[in-house]
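Example S7 (structure tokens).
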């Protein structure tokens, strides 16, 4: 009974935590504090709104609220005149709660009303069933299937003429033993690849990279919730593109010009080499401040998208992060070239408050 009560209290507490996270989701997203507290499967969320219960031991000689006294009067046995002064320390309790990335993805999906993705590429992976539904001739005694063992022994004794209906004694031998076993079966499992591309030229500053880092964390969280098998690649570019690791992607600072087509060419090569469209769901995401070195290269980018990336991708997403040095022209060019094309989604990210709307634009189609 006590265990059941604890389970009920824990469930109620999780509902309270979920409500707090949903109400403060915008603040959590814009601050980026969850990323620094991320584990493999959980994130730690500070929730100052939840007060911690405390017990005080002592004797209440006169009961609660009894006795003489005026507001502000000092308590006998304690120093002070009862007048309150401003203190230096925080008076609000804070509790840190671990939330699984799956729960965080569900909260994001509910808050942004994101549809579940319908994968197009699937591959069959041989996996073991979660229950012992098979029968084997070998196994430990703890998995012995008594009914099947008895049946085999009975069939053997009847066939050999040793079974006596007047004295129905059935004695199994080793050949009669049957055991429960895990079965393996072909189980369809969707796989996805995310390819992040980012302009790291001199016009993309630290704040722009931090916005991209926060948005990428939430996109990863949602897509990992949708796909069992997810692989992530990172491409940086200025005038030349390179594939890098995650840390380099978010911290590299270059100078010089910007040639966006170099990133798209490298992305296409990566997809061709590793991710055939019939088996993989491919999601290229590109972030920049909208500058490109020439209109001719922008035309080349449009051609690469139309003829190369779009046919093998579920969706192509371009996020334009506002920069003091960026012209913002590239998004206008993409919007003009792909008007009405559902596979191309673009968004303007003016500041950190624009991260959630951008995520909703990218993921609301369920592709």
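Recovered sequence:
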């Amino acid at each position: 009974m006590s265990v059941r009560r604890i389970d009920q209290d824990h469930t109620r507490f999780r509902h309270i935590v979920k409500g707090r996270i949903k109400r403060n989701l915008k603040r959590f997203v814009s601050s980026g504090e969850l990323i620094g507290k991320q584990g493999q499967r959980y994130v730690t969320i500070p929730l100052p709104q939840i007060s911690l219960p405390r017990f005080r031991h002592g004797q209440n000689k006169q009961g609660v609220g009894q006795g003489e006294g005026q507001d502000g009067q000092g308590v006998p046995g304690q120093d002070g005149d009862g007048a309150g002064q401003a203190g230096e320390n925080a008076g609000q309790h804070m509790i840190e709660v671990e939330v699984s990335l799956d729960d965080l993805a569900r909260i994001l999906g509910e808050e942004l009303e994101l549809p579940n993705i319908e994968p197009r590429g699937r591959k069959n992976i041989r996996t073991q069933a979660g229950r012992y539904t098979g029968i084997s001739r070998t196994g430990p005694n703890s998995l012995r299937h008594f009914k099947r063992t008895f049946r085999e022994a009975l069939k053997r004794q009847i066939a050999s003429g040793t079974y006596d209906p007047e004295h129905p004694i059935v004695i199994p031998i080793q050949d009669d033993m049957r055991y429960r076993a895990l079965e393996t079966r072909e189980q369809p499992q969707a796989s996805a690849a995310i390819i992040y591309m980012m302009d790291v030229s001199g016009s993309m500053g630290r704040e722009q990279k931090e916005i991209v880092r926060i948005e990428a964390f939430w996109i990863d969280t949602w897509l990992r919730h949708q796909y069992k098998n997810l692989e992530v690649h990172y491409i940086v570019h200025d005038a030349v593109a390179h594939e890098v690791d995650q840390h380099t992607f978010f911290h590299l600072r270059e100078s010089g010009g910007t040639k966006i087509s170099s990133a798209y060419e490298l992305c296409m090569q990566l997809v061709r080499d590793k991710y055939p469209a019939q088996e993989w769901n491919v999601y290229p995401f590109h972030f920049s401040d909208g500058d490109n070195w020439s209109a001719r290269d922008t035309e080349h980018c449009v051609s690469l998208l139309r003829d190369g990336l779009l046919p093998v991708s579920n969706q192509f997403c371009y996020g334009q992060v506002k920069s003091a040095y960026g012209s913002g022209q590239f998004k206008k060019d993409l919007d003009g070239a792909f008007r009405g094309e559902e596979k191309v989604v673009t968004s303007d990210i003016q500041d950190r408050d624009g991260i959630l709307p951008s995520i909703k634009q990218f993921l609301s189609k369920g592709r």
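Notes on this example. The chain has three domains: 1-51+93-113, 130-182, 191-363.
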